[in-house]
């Protein structure tokens, strides 16, 4: 997916025929907050990922990948990071996985 996570939620909502109010109720949000999420003015709460996956019958692993890739992309963009940052981050992930006792 190339769109932001908020835009992805909006696409899911529209493709499945939900109004903003209907989906907001299912996610235990008010419609104003969901609107802000869809318009990239507020971040989606990670705690609601499972619920979002259930509502739209999505694979939770793929949904988490979309969610976290969006967070990482926004952080890198905001800090004007280059491609080398991603390469180094992948190396650090491998290192962290090898050190299973590290607390994050």
Write the layout of secondary structure elements.
Elements: H1 5-15, H2 20-26, H3 31-38, H4 49-56, H5 60-78, H6 83-98
Helix content: 55-70%
Rough outline? elongated
What kind of assembly state do the chains in view correspond to? single chain
Radius of gyration: 16 Å
| Poorly predicted residue ranges | none
Question: Could you write a compact summary of the structure shown?
Answer:
The protein is mostly helical and 104 residues long. The chain contains six helices and no strands.
List keywords for this structure.
0% strand; elongated; 6 helices; 104 residues; mainly alpha
Descriptive notes:
This protein is mainly alpha-helical and 104 residues long. The protein is 66% helix and 0% strand. It is built from 6 helices and no strands. It has helices at residues 5-15, 20-26, 31-38, 49-56, 60-78, 83-98. The two termini are 28 Å apart.
């Amino acid at each position: 997916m190339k769109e932001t996570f908020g835009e992805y939620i909006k696409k899911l909502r529209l493709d499945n025929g939900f109004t903003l109010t209907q989906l907001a109720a299912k996610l235990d949000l008010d419609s104003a907050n969901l609107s802000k999420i869809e318009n990239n003015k507020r971040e989606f709460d990670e705690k609601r990922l499972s619920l979002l996956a259930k509502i739209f019958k999505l694979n939770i692993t793929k949904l988490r990948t979309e969610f976290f890739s969006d967070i990482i992309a926004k952080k890198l963009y905001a800090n004007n990071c280059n491609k080398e940052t991603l390469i180094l981050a992948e190396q650090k992930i491998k290192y962290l996985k090898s050190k299973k006792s590290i607390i994050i």
